[in-house]
Amino acid sequence: PIMAQRANITAALENFKAAPDEAFVRQPVVEVLFACSSATVWRRIKSGLIPAPVKLSERSTAWRVGDLRAALASLSQ
Questions:
Q1: Are the CB atoms for 62 and 56 separated by under 8 Å?
Q2: Which one, of 14, 37, 27, 28, lies nearest residue 63 by Cα?
Q3: Which of 5, 29, 31, 60 has its CA 20 to 30 A from that of 45?
């Protein structure tokens, strides 16, 4: 299962640039994009550095690619 998760994250990162702004990614991808741990993702959401995720269902949250792109762009300014 670990190798499959890594393959999924790798594929999501490779497709991130071409993905439409309306696409969604899960937390492991956010952790890699912002080079931080799970706990730090949530601290940065609370401080406003990372956008909040969207609740897709009762047990599923994800981030909009467009929101993450905007946050990454603001960090590089």
A1: yes
A2: 27
A3: 5
Q: Where are the alpha helices (DSSP H) in 1-77?
A: 2-16, 27-33, 38-47, 65-75
Residue indicated by tokens 């393959």:
7
Q: Which residues lie closer than 8 Å to 24 by C-beta, 6 or more apart?
A: 54, 56, 62, 63, 64, 65
| pLDDT tens profile 33-77 | 999 999 999 999 999 999 999 999 999 999 999 999 999 999 877
User: Which tokens is 71 given?
Assistant: 């946050």
Nearest to 27 by CA among 37, 15, 18, 19: 37
Contact 19, 65 (CB under 8 A): yes
Report how far residue 61's alpha carbon sits from residue 30's, in angstroms, rounded to the nearest whole number: 12
